[in-house]
Amino acid sequence: MMKRFEGKVALVTGGAFGMGAATATLFAAEGAKVAICDLLEDEGPKRVAEIEADGGTAMFCKLDVTKEPNGKRRSPRSSRPMAG
Predict the structure, then answer these.
(1) CA–CA gap between residue 37 and residue 9 (Å, rounded)
(2) Whether pLDDT at 2 is above 80
(3) How far apart are CA 53 and CA 72, in angstroms?
(4) What residue numbers bound the domain in which 71 lies?
(5) Which residues, at least 6 apart from 83, have a Cβ–Cβ distance to it below 8 Å?
(6) Rounded to whole angstroms, how far apart are CA atoms 63 and 69?
(7) Which of 1, 32, 56, 64 has a 20 to 30 Å separation from 8 between CA atoms?
(8) How far, in Å, are 6, 29, 62, 67 from residue 3 at the CA level?
(9) What stretches of 11-54 show up as alpha helix (H) in DSSP?
(10) How far apart are CA 10 and CA 1, in angstroms?
(11) In angstroms, rounded to a whole number, what is the distance separating the alpha carbons of residues 43 and 8?
């Protein structure tokens, strides 16, 4: 049975902690490759490790979405290594 997000990449801002982490975990459980983007450099890699331990695919990138140039510069590049 195919999962809802199989073959998709989900970029989750604020994905290192709280509701964002729960979202990232759920997307990964549904088959998405997850890019966790957040300012929390200590928590982000922990979420990645948890997702990978459960058989998912994830990566972390430090991103401040309140700074528009950061979002424009990072978003496309964040998902590129996971495509395909």
Answers:
(1) 13
(2) no
(3) 30
(4) 9-82
(5) 9
(6) 10
(7) 64
(8) 5, 8, 28, 34
(9) 18-29, 43-53
(10) 20
(11) 23
CATH number at residue 48: 3.40.50.720
Indicate the residue type of 34.
V
Per-residue 3-state assignment (H helix, E strand, C coil) for 47-64 = HHHHHHHCCCEEEEEECC
In whole angstroms, what is the distance from residue 49 CA to residue 26 CA? 14
Q: How many other CB atoms sit within 10 Å of the CB of residue 13?
A: 18
The residue with tokens 């990138």 is 61
What's the structural domain count of the chain?
1
Give the separation between CA 74 and CA 51, rounded to whole angstroms: 21
